[in-house]
Each structure stands twice: as structure tokens, then as C-alpha cells.
Design goal:
The protein is 58% helix and 13% strand. With 118 residues, it is an alpha+beta fold.
Length: 118
């Protein structure tokens, strides 16, 4: 087990004792624990603040991902509309089923290209 030490100023460190005035203590359970002279005490306020900051960062990231996903869908729909008009112009005598196959092929190619570029 790793040894823990408290300096006279209250700082905690592990491994070998750095100074003779440092006091050996049990290993610190987490960075949110403070030594009260006899035991480690959870600093709940600091833990809650760190948890809230982490949750905010996760929420922000998820919101950015949702926005990007929505933009990708919008871009793909726009691309699909452009492809449909191109297929209509390029294959004026094709049946609706044939045009749908051409459009689907082009849309899948576009989606694959986007994934490669990510």
C-alpha cells in the first residue's frame, strides 16, 4: 500500500517522506477528501461543484453533437434533393423505380464519403 503524508501546511503527497515534520496518514480516498487531524473527511461541496462542472461539460458536448447531427441531416437532405434533380435531368426516360435506385446509390455514396472525411 502506498504511504501518504501530510505536510505542516496541510498538503498531501504519497510515497517517501520528504521532510521529518511530515506526518504519515492513510492513503487519501480521493482528491475531495481533507485530513482533519485524525481521519479523511469528504469535502462534499467541492465534490458537488466538480460533478456539476463535469455534467455541464458533458451537456454542452451532447448539445454540440446534436446540433452537428441535425446539420448533417439537413445537408444530406439538401444533397438528396440536388441528386434527385440531377437524376431527373440525366435520366429523363427512366422509370420512377430506376430513378429511386440512382438516387439511393448517390445518397449512399455521399454518406460514405462524409464518414470517411470525419
Amino acid at each position: 500500500m502506498t504511504k501518504g503524508w501530510i505536510t505542516p501546511t496541510g498538503d498531501y503527497y504519497e510515497n517517501d517522506q520528504a521532510h521529518s515534520l511530515d506526518v504519515e496518514v492513510p492513503q487519501r480516498p480521493s482528491g475531495f477528501h481533507n485530513w482533519n487531524g485524525s481521519t479523511w473527511v469528504l469535502n462534499q461541496a467541492a465534490k458537488d461543484a466538480a460533478d456539476a462542472a463535469a455534467r455541464a461539460a458533458i451537456d454542452s458536448t451532447e448539445a454540440q453533437e446534436a446540433k452537428l447531427d441535425a446539420q448533417i441531416v439537413t445537408d444530406l437532405n439538401r444533397t438528396r434533393a440536388n441528386i434527385e434533380s440531377t437524376v431527373d435531368a440525366a435520366f429523363p426516360t427512366a422509370t420512377a423505380a430506376q430513378k429511386a435506385i440512382h438516387v439511393r446509390t448517390f445518397v449512399l455514396a455521399q454518406a460514405s464519403a462524409r464518414k470517411v472525411l470525419r
